[in-house]
Amino acid sequence: MLLMKYNSRILDLARNDLKEIRTYLSDFGSSPKHKLRESFNEYVKNVSNNPYIYPEYEENNMYRKAVIHYDYLVFYTVDEENKTVKIQRVLSSRQNVKNILD
């Protein structure tokens, strides 16, 4: 079976989330920020190659969820019509994720 590569699109809320996370991690030196960037880039590559690799988010099945670097969660949707994975949010598992996504 030939898999079709999907485009990936990081939405503004996710970009803002990443910026806040990088700012927070900068207090701990450059290594955590670098590892987060590597993990996120690998995640985008994986999800673009196979958008259904990660499970649906049990609290809201509109989203699919992946865990990356430490305890950060990436929530995304799949737009089949446009063959695009849309990265919606990047949140810490310590946040009230359910309320944020509702």
Q: In total, how many domains does the architecture comprise?
A: 1
How is the biggest beta sheet arranged? 4 strands, mixed
Cα distance, first to last residue? 36 Å
- The number of helices is 3
Would you list the SSEs in sequence order as H and E? EHHEEEH
SSE map:
Elements: E1 7-10, H1 12-25, H2 30-49, E2 64-68, E3 72-79, E4 84-92, H3 97-101
Parallel strand pairs: 1-4
Antiparallel strand pairs: 2-3, 3-4
Question: What can you see in these coordinates?
Answer:
The chain has a 4-stranded mixed beta sheet with strand order 1-4-3-2. It starts with 6 loop residues before the first strand and ends with a helix. The longest helix has 20 residues, at 30-49. It contains 3 helices and 4 strands; from the N terminus they run E-H-H-E-E-E-H. With 102 residues, it is an alpha+beta fold. It has one domain (7-101): RelE-like (YaeB-like fold). It has helices at residues 12-25, 30-49, 97-101, and strands at residues 7-10, 64-68, 72-79, 84-92. The mean pLDDT is 89.
Provide a short characterization of the protein structure.
This protein is an alpha+beta fold. It is 38% helix and 25% strand.
Question: Which key phrases capture this entry?
Answer:
globular; alpha+beta; 102 residues; 38% helix
